[in-house]
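User: Second chain of the day. Same drill as before.
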Amino acid sequence: MALHVSVVSADAEVWSGEASLVVAKTIEGEIGFMTGHEPVLAILAEGQLRITKEDGSKVIANAQDGFLSIERDIVTIVAGNAALVA
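Assistant: Same format as last time:
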């Protein structure tokens, strides 16, 4: 079972796919999500999103000015600015 993750910025989809773990920086500190997590709505702080795909590879993006939510293993991250780290 996987998380369904979507990361979007104001003007484009940055990344979407399935993951086993998502870690994001919020205004209250870092938070991590795995399958079965309770619903959460949080405000993003400027920082990195770390997404671990099911095969163990990682996706890292910088994000700021937005929010994230998780409900029923669907993680949505909406940022004013977001970009994958090369």
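The chain has a mean pLDDT of 96.

User: Great, on to the next one.
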